[in-house]
């Protein structure tokens, strides 16, 4: 889901239910209506409700502050957990790897991996630690605008001369 859609959905949800306790009191159908048109909104509504219930029962309504605890929450995988660690807890020891980071890291030859989790582990080895919390910010923006999944805009890329373009078949227009 694009950031603007997610922002609008979360704004609607938090306007109605600003705390885990308030969200847990909503029905899944109510949450679905509030977060639509987020992709997979039905699944995400269930995860949001279930997560709030777990936050209340296990963590006294507070978001846990470790990666290991975060990934136990319904619907929370490593990508989301790492992003929470970076944004909510100012961690400098996490790398958030989504599909853009995975694709671009492989295209540039930084890593040779098959999936985002493997990419995350490899990036800890090859990237300077000072960049870990920033990799996602930069590569997501780059991946949405220049190094796109299909028909990347290599002609508009400032890294084109150094990029091995691993896995790139055809490129798009500038």
Provide a brief overview of the structure.
Helix content is 54%, strand content 0%. The chain has 174 residues and is mainly alpha-helical.
List keywords for this structure.
single chain; about 170 residues; mainly alpha; 9 helices
Could you please describe the fold and organization of this structure?
It is a single chain. This protein is an all-alpha fold and 174 residues long. 54% of the residues lie in helices and 0% in strands. The protein has helices at residues 3-16, 20-25, 28-35, 41-59, 67-70, 78-89, 99-107, 116-126, 135-145. The protein is globular.
Could you tell me the radius of gyration in angstroms? 18 Å
Q: Which band does the percent of strand residues land in?
A: under 5%
Shape: globular
Main sheet characteristics: none
What value does the average pLDDT take?
Answer: 96
* Count of DSSP strands: 0
Structural class: mainly alpha
Order of secondary-structure elements: HHHHHHHHH
Distance between the termini: 25 Å
Q: pLDDT below 50 for ≥5 consecutive residues: which ranges? A: none
Number of helices: 9
Helix percent reads 40-55%
What are the SSEs and their pairings?
Layout: H1 3-16, H2 20-25, H3 28-35, H4 41-59, H5 67-70, H6 78-89, H7 99-107, H8 116-126, H9 135-145
Helix pairs in contact: 3-4, 7-8, 7-9
């Amino acid at each position: 889901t694009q950031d603007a859609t997610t922002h609008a959905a979360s704004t609607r949800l938090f306007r109605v239910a600003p705390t885990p306790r308030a969200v847990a009191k909503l029905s899944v159908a109510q949450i679905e209506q509030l977060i639509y048109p987020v992709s997979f909104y039905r699944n995400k509504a269930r995860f949001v409700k279930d997560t709030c219930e777990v936050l209340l029962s296990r963590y006294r309504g507070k978001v846990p502050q470790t990666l290991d605890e975060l990934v136990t929450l319904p619907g929370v995988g490593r990508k989301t957990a790492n992003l929470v660690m970076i944004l909510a807890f100012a961690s400098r020891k996490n790398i958030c790897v989504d599909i853009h980071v995975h694709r671009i890291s492989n295209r540039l030859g930084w890593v040779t991996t098959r999936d985002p989790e493997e990419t995350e582990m490899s990036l800890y080895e090859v990237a300077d630690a000072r960049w870990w919390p920033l990799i996602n910010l930069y590569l997501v923006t780059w991946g949405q605008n220049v190094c796109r999944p299909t028909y990347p805009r290599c002609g508009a890329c400032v890294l084109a001369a150094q990029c091995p373009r691993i896995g790139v078949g055809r490129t798009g227009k500038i």
